[in-house]
Specification:
Chain B: InterPro entries: Cyt_c_oxidase_su5A/6, Cyt_c_oxidase_su5A/6_sf. The structure holds two protein chains of two kinds. Chain A contains seven helices and two strands. By secondary structure, chain A is an all-alpha fold. In chain A, a hairpin with a 4-residue loop joins strand 1 and strand 2. Chain A is rod-shaped. The two termini of chain A are 53 Å apart. Chain B is globular. Classes of the chains: A mainly alpha, B mainly alpha.
């Protein structure tokens, strides 16, 4: 009765923990930390979307659609000779149309560290459970596994010549009375 | 009875083999496609013409560029020159820089292609005022 109560509370704790841990690698905080853009709630899939793709350099729509007044002025300046633009203006123009540069698209994230850490934590937790089980749940091993029983058993097996060709008694030297 | 069947079937097979054109003349005609293969020069000329259209619109530039990057090749400088001039006509400096980034990425492990392209395109880049991603520090993270 007492054991069942302990087991159910253990299961409850484990259930709570997995419910708590499951959204951990996909929460927006962690995704922003790993470098994803989470500034929108719902994508409108009925209109062309912006996307960062290595195999599609020019996206269907520019990244920033709604330009404020100074961005509009910059766009006007783009209509003139490009030699007149400063470096900062050129970078600003690029960032208006494209979110990520190619190196930024190719950069990996550190998500694997979170995943590996989570895996090890769960493995450790399982190890804890197994250890607790070993101490508090399992009884003693049978007496036939004790050292003196195994000794007598081995001697009996040698006397009976168990597997004399390729197995057990083959490895016993009956002349020198020792293992080969 | 079996011998008769075999005799009939072998003669049938022989006549079948005779009517198939592919095996009639040894090595003269293989079963290859008869489509004409486009030479490299024709390919380049076609793409230069595509981007040289005076009233090219933004969609055509995007479509052309995305298709070109989809091919298993790095475009010749003359194609890129034509594409960069199309960007100038469309007043799109960001796309011009994007094209340069894309061909650098397309070269993959062959690191000597991109410097060659920039060297060939340098007159156009200075004329139009396009800075390379390296000039802008955008090739680093």
């Amino acid at each position: 009765m007492h054991d069942i109560k302990m087991l159910t509370s253990r299961a409850l704790v484990r259930g709570l923990k997995s419910g708590f841990w499951r959204p951990l690698s996909s929460t927006s905080g962690v995704q922003v930390a790993h470098g994803k853009d989470m500034s929108f709630d719902v994508l409108d899939c009925s209109v062309p979307q912006y996307n960062n793709r290595l195999d599609t350099p020019l996206s269907d729509v520019p990244f920033v659609r709604n330009l404020n007044s100074e961005q509009k002025q910059l766009k006007e300046k783009e209509n003139g000779p490009w030699t007149k633009l400063t470096k900062e203006e050129i970078i600003a123009l690029y960032r208006l149309t494209y979110e990520l540069t190619y190196p930024e698209m190719r950069r990996g994230s550190s998500e694997w560290k979170t995943v590996l850490g989570g895996v090890f934590i769960f493995l450790g937790f399982s190890g804890m459970l197994v250890w607790w089980q070993r101490i508090f749940v399992f009884g003693e091993v049978p007496h036939t596994l004790s050292d003196e029983w195994v000794e007598k058993q081995t001697q009996r097996m040698i006397d009976m010549r168990i597997n004399p060709v390729g197995g057990f008694a083959y490895h016993w030297d009956y002349v020198k009375k020792q293992w080969k | 009875m079996f011998r008769a069947v075999v005799r009939l079937s072998t003669s049938g097979v022989r006549s079948l083999a005779r009517t198939r054109p592919c095996f009639s003349a040894p090595l003269a005609s293989r079963c290859y496609s008869h489509a004409k293969v486009e030479t490299d020069e024709e390919f380049d000329a076609r793409w230069v013409t595509y981007f040289s259209k005076p009233d090219i619109d933004a969609w055509e530039l995007k479509k052309g560029m995305n298709t070109l990057i989809g091919y298993d090749l790095v475009p010749e400088p003359k194609i890129l020159d034509s594409a960069l001039r199309a960007c100038r006509r469309l007043n799109d400096l960001a796309s011009a820089i994007r094209i340069l980034e894309a061909v650098k990425d397309k070269s993959g492990p062959h690191k000597d292609i991109y410097p060659y392209l920039i060297q060939e395109l340098q007159p156009t880049l200075t004329e139009l005022g396009i800075s390379t991603p390296e000039d802008l520090g955008m090739d680093k993270l």
